[in-house]
Amino acid sequence: MDQEKSLNNSLSRLLERAFLKGRRQLYFSTILRESNLPSELVEGTLFSFFQSGAVEGSLELRCPECGKDLGEYKKLSEMPQEVECYICDAKIPRSFDYVELVVHLKGDTFFREHRNPPSDDFGANNR
Amino acid sequence: MPPKLLHVLIEKYQVAVPDSVNEFGLPEFLIQELSANQLEEILCDYGYAGKAVCHYLILNETIPSIVELELASKKFPPQPEKVDHPEQDSPLFEYGETDVRNSLFRVRFSYFHDTQTVYDPDTSLIKQWFSVYNGTMVLRPGKRLIEVRASHRPIVRQIAYRAMATMKLPSMSRLNLYTEKFVQSFLQWINSLNNARLTFSAEDELSAISLSAKRAVDLRTTDKFKEYFHDGYLRGAHVTIGKPEEHQINFRIFFRDTRVTFTSFANENEISLVADGLERISGGGEFRGPRKILEQFFE
């Protein structure tokens, strides 16, 4: 439980810092790189952020052969069944295998609150 | 080539070295004494290896045969004789070659990186140019792991993408070695852990710690390592493969960057051994993105 809280805080801080620097969207791979944490832990924590609505996201289609970005989509279902890369002519089927998750940061308030949620006692004493 | 390795070669090819030849004269002496075939063997084994810096990526299918790779490499455009406006970190294809001895195919690239500024006293001008570096992509037929040997990380993906696109190879994924499962299996696979770099989460007072074992001590057996390993994440390690009485391979691994730097003078066979080990342990563990998030929120 402590580790979970610590991860939450660590990731919140990272996203808050990014937001304060004017970055409004981050690739999942960038978050992984900057957080310096194993991918499954970052995914787990980020999952809770998506659930609570603190962050939103979109999918960026990437050509697996030449790396070219081929457009951004809100959902996988919006993507055509097959996209042809205009750089290398590769045919890319609709699949999560070829997308990069883009995390959109909505505001820094959430991260601050998420990091240090006010305890009931503290709140009561201050009311 | 280190003197120790020269002696290994002397023993292997049974060359009689007269007393008049000292350590410094050994390389020259060997070049004269060994046959062209033997020299070619040494070049195949060590020419592109040694203390190599290897970055790993994974293909979604296995690498095709050498014949197919040879044909595919002919699609590369010839390298321009002169580059007027060098583009930083943009790889230029040099040549592709088959190494029959080690059953692999190499694609050699050159690229410009870092600017050098020098004052030219003749013209009284300050001149600036890019330094030229080389990168090698190694393809082993039947395997999925591809290896890019280059000193600069930003160039690695570009080399790989350029080669993949031109040679029409199967699509590529990022290899994920920074998982608890891989790290645990890796620690079981190696023969000795010499140094470990662990990082901690933001709440911890420590950011990172580097632990080194004394000579002939395996860090895995120490209490300190067990304690820190329990609380932190193993980000990098210096390890040894092979038992003390055998030939040993030493390398440093960076799990997050999927990078291996050999610290002992390794030959192609030894580098392949490490690459095969990584592929086997990772179970072809390509990074498939944050699947849970994607499937839940972006279906």
Task: Report what the structure shows.
The complex is a heterodimer of chains A (127) and B (299). Chain A has 127 residues and is α+β, with helices and mostly antiparallel strands. Chain A has a single domain (2-115), classed as Orthogonal Bundle (Arc Repressor Mutant, subunit A), CATH 1.10.10. In chain A, 44% of the residues lie in helices and 23% in strands. Chain A has 5 helices and 6 strands; from the N terminus they run H-E-H-H-E-E-E-E-E-H-H. Chain A has helices spanning 2-20, 28-35, 39-52, 108-115, 120-126; strands spanning 25-27, 55-62, 69-73, 82-84, 91-93, 99-105. In chain A, the strands form 2 sheets. Chain A has a 4-stranded antiparallel β-sheet. A two-stranded antiparallel sheet of chain A has the order 4-5. Chain A is elongated, with a radius of gyration of 18 Å. The two termini of chain A are 29 Å apart. Residues 118-127 of chain A have low confidence and may be disordered. Chain B is of the alpha+beta class and 299 residues long. Chain B folds into 3 domains: 3-46; 53-173, no CATH class; 180-257, no CATH class. In chain B, strands 1, 2, 3, 4, 5, 6, 7, 8, 9, 10 and 11 form an 11-stranded antiparallel β-sheet that branches. In chain B, strand 4 (125-139) and strand 5 form a beta hairpin. The longest helix of chain B has 15 residues, at 153-167. Chain B is globular. The model of chain B has no long low-confidence stretch (mean pLDDT 86). At the A-B interface, helix 1, helix 2, helix 3 and strand 6 of A face helix 5, strand 6 and helix 9 of B.
Largest sheet of chain B: 11 strands, antiparallel
**Helix and strand element order of chain B:** HHHEHEEEEHEHEEHEEEHH
Any idea what the shape of chain B is? globular
* Class from secondary-structure proportions of chain B: alpha+beta
Shape of chain A: elongated
Q: Which series of helices and strands of chain A comes N to C? A: HEHHEEEEEHH
Instruction: Tell me, rounded to a whole number, the average pLDDT of chain B.
Output: 86
Q: How many β-strands of chain A, per DSSP?
A: 6
Supply the helix-strand structural class of chain A: alpha+beta
Radius of gyration of chain A: 18 Å
Output mean pLDDT of chain A. Answer: 78
- Give the helix level of chain B as a range of percent: 25-40%
Work out the count of structural domains of chain A: 1
Strand content of chain A: 15-25%
- Tell me the CATH topology of chain A: Arc Repressor Mutant, subunit A
- State the low-pLDDT regions of chain A, or none: 118-127
Give the oligomer, counting copies of the same chain as homo and different chains as hetero. Answer: heterodimer
Gyration radius over CA of chain B: 22 Å
